[in-house]
Amino acid sequence: MSFPKGFFWGGALAANQVEGAWKEGGKGPSVADVATYKPKTDVKDYAAHMAVNDELIAAAMADPDDTYYPKRRGIDFYHHYKEDLALFAEMGFTMLRVSIAWTRIFPTGEETEPNEAGLQFYSDLFAEMHRLGIEPLVTLSHYEMPLALAVKYNGWYDRRVIDCFTRFCHACFERYKNDVKYWLTFNEVDSIIRHPFTTAGVIPSRFPEEKLLEVCYQALHHQLVASALVVKDCHEIIPGSKVGCMLTKLTTYARTCNPDDELATQAKNLENLFYADVHVWGEYPRLILKMFERKGICLHTEPGDDAILKAGCVDFVSCSYYMTMTESVDPNAERTPGNTVLGVKNPYLPASDWGWQIDPKGLRYSLIELYDRYRKPLMVVENGIGAKDTVEPDGSIHDPYRVDYFRQHISEMGKAIDEGVEMWGYTSWAPIDLISASTNQMSKRYGFIYVDQDDMGNGTLARSRKDSFYWYKKVIASNGEDLD
Asked: Which residues have a catalytic role annotated?
């Protein structure tokens, strides 16, 4: 394997899962601040964990506590970021993916002037990263849109939110034009269909069930237009900047060679890829437009939208990769959960405690597919395994399962590079334990660094190095050559 010189190694975080301090520094509430931990709900039932309606939102905002709203506290990165960055630097990180919490900058999303305290927090964060030699990769929207916009406008379903978002992004570009070169617009932009509230502030209960899919695609259209506007704005404000899209790579295999299974699989993969298609090519694929037509989905667009999409194509493609699925037309085929999705179980693959099937070779397959399709540089900006860790009496944390997972995936990524895939970097999810995006658990641990906090928020928040910390440090020091 030959990882290119200057390849970025690091990790990825989201503000809503790590920062905490949900009311400090003038921050307003986001959709993440009403996400609840449901200890009696099956961890594999993502629909139940992510369900929301107006009554639940009102109840959440009437509750000042954070016990059942873990993203309000995160891991207190807001106050611990220097300590955490020092640990990342000790591992040798050359890149850290973070997100900017929209409501730290514009608390309701509708202000005309940004909140200086919020801007300063990220100025301080980026300054410390640069001091340690860590390049920021910044996501502008990572599941943390202002709650006020969700409640007032039904989130991204209302076109007026485009102006709110572009104003927020413009303020970020102006403030951090000397600090940040690499940007992502929307995290897992395809996830709007799986969890519309988390991704786009759409409250499903406000719409008839038969209308919801059209609502989601309408909200998506507004996000795609906003993304294109933001890409163009970033290029104009920050010369040499690079802006990418971010896709949940949900590679699906046919369960059998039955042609009907193959056709169902093809449709699923085309649906997954079309979000990146629009970002890269600046237009909707004809096959997707025909799919809308077949399903009776009518999108409202404005004159000039097509030109906006064409003028705001991304510079690179990034993705999260955790697992693959299979597909079958057999209604009795056993299904298993993945990254907030259900797929037909693959008998050839093991699975995590949360049911996510582990497929390192699927990463190589996915990278080759993406590069062949788009011919743009790639980054893997999320990849990791949620697992239960045990702290030994002497304080050590042995996690060979995590090392094995990363060893196999990094090896397959290297093979993809050897086959000709152009890659800029790899940021693991996540370098430090944090609140799970879907189930809001702390006990679903991803990090190389252990954080002493349980699902109910109890603990000292002390940080501890796991065995995988030292292994990843060695990988980075060898530029991916030493995976033993």
From this structure: 188, 382
